[in-house]
Automatic annotation (TrEMBL):
GO molecular function terms attached to this record: heme binding; iron ion binding; monooxygenase activity; oxidoreductase activity, acting on paired donors, with incorporation or reduction of molecular oxygen
UniProt xrefs under Pfam families: p450
Keywords (A to Z) from UniProt: Heme, Iron, Metal-binding, Monooxygenase, Oxidoreductase, Signal
The keyword Transferase is annotated on this UniProt entry: no
Cofactor: heme
Protein name: Cytochrome P450
Coiled coil: none
Recorded superkingdom: Eukaryota
Signal peptide location: 1-19
Gene3D superfamilies: Cytochrome P450 (1.10.630.10)
Family: Belongs to the cytochrome P450 family.
Signal among keywords: yes
Length: 83
């Protein structure tokens, strides 16, 4: 179980870093939004999530870039086939 969780977190983090490297404008806007909404002396809480819309969109976009779980289903038949 532990190794599976590590793979998902690593893939998400690397995708986010790649997204930030491709978008230097986002690297500038994201900390500005965080400082404006929360300040510099504490971490954000869930109650401030609506005020951090750009950060939420950035995280969702990085998750959209590369799925970290397989979504394809193996082919299967609805009925048993006999030959």
């Amino acid at each position: 179980m532990y190794a599976t969780g590590v793979d998902i977190i690593l893939a998400s983090t690397l995708t986010f870093i790649l997204a930030m490297l491709h978008a230097p404008r986002a690297q500038k806007i994201t900390p500005e939004e965080l400082d404006r909404a929360v300040g510099t002396d504490r971490l954000p809480t869930y109650t401030e999530q609506e005020a951090l819309s750009y950060i939420n969109a950035t995280v969702k976009e990085s998750l959209r870039w590369e799925l970290v779980i397989p979504l394809d289903c193996p082919p299967c038949c609805a009925e048993t086939q006999t030959t």
